[in-house]
């Protein structure tokens, strides 16, 4: 006997085709909605200014100062961030986005960190504007 291949009813094929078209429509809708969101997120990440990056660096350096104080019971003397590298708190010497070292002063428990901006000199406007962060560090009791 000769077997004939089984055939699916036409309604089943139409149903499968409809499912496939629906899936394609959903995919295009998702790409249409999420595509611009991805572009916006990518734009916001790639378009940080150097001043924004310096502010972020200063925030991270604040954490390094607090860790140093927790480990040693004191703040580093004002001057060079190499003290934090020597203590193992920073892996490398931190420099600002203009490739200048960050500066800091210590007054009691208060630390002021700053960058002099693009020109490397105090003051200025625009790209030359200074970026600073001041914070207090809780020192452990002695």
General form: elongated
Most strands sheet: 3 strands, antiparallel
Q: Please state roughly what percent of the residues sit in beta strands, choosing from under 5%, 5-15%, 15-25%, 25-35%, 35-45% or over 45%.
A: 5-15%
Task: Give the CATH H-level superfamily of the largest domain.
Answer: Glycoprotein, Type 4 Pilin
Share of helix among residues?
40-55%
Rg measurement, Å:
30 Å
N to C succession of SSEs: HHHEEE
Number of domains: 2
Strand order of the largest sheet: 1-2-3
Give the class from helix and strand content and strand pairing. Answer: alpha+beta
Q: Class of the largest domain in CATH?
A: Alpha Beta
In a nutshell, what does this entry contain?
The chain has 142 residues and is an alpha+beta fold. Helix content is 46%, strand content 12%. The protein is elongated.
What does this 3D model show about the protein?
- The chain has helices at 10-46, 50-72, 82-86, and strands spanning 103-107, 110-115, 131-136.
- It has 142 residues and is α+β, with helices and mostly antiparallel strands.
- It has 2 domains: 8-47; 50-136, Glycoprotein, Type 4 Pilin, CATH 3.30.700.
- A 3-stranded antiparallel sheet has the order 1-2-3, covered by helices on one side.
- A hairpin with a 2-residue loop joins strand 1 (103-107) and strand 2 (110-115).
- The chain is elongated, with a radius of gyration of 30 Å.
- The mean pLDDT is 83.
Give me some keywords for this one:
alpha+beta; membrane; Glycoprotein, Type 4 Pilin; three-stranded antiparallel beta sheet; 3 helices; 142 residues; elongated; 3 strands; 2 domains
């Amino acid at each position: 006997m000769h077997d004939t291949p089984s055939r699916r009813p036409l309604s089943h094929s139409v149903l499968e085709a409809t499912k496939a078209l629906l899936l394609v429509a959903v995919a295009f809708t998702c790409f249409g909605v999420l595509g611009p969101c991805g572009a916006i997120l990518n734009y916001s990440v790639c378009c940080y200014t150097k001043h924004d990056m310096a502010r972020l660096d200063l925030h991270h350096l604040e954490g390094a100062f607090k860790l140093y104080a927790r480990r040693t019971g004191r703040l580093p003397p004002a001057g060079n961030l190499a003290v934090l590298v020597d203590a193992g708190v920073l892996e490398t010497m931190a420099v600002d986005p203009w490739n200048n070292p960050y500066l800091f002063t210590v007054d009691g428990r208060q630390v002021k960190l700053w960058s002099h901006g693009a020109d490397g000199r105090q003051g200025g406007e625009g790209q030359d504007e200074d970026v600073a962060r001041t914070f207090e560090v809780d020192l452990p009791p002695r």
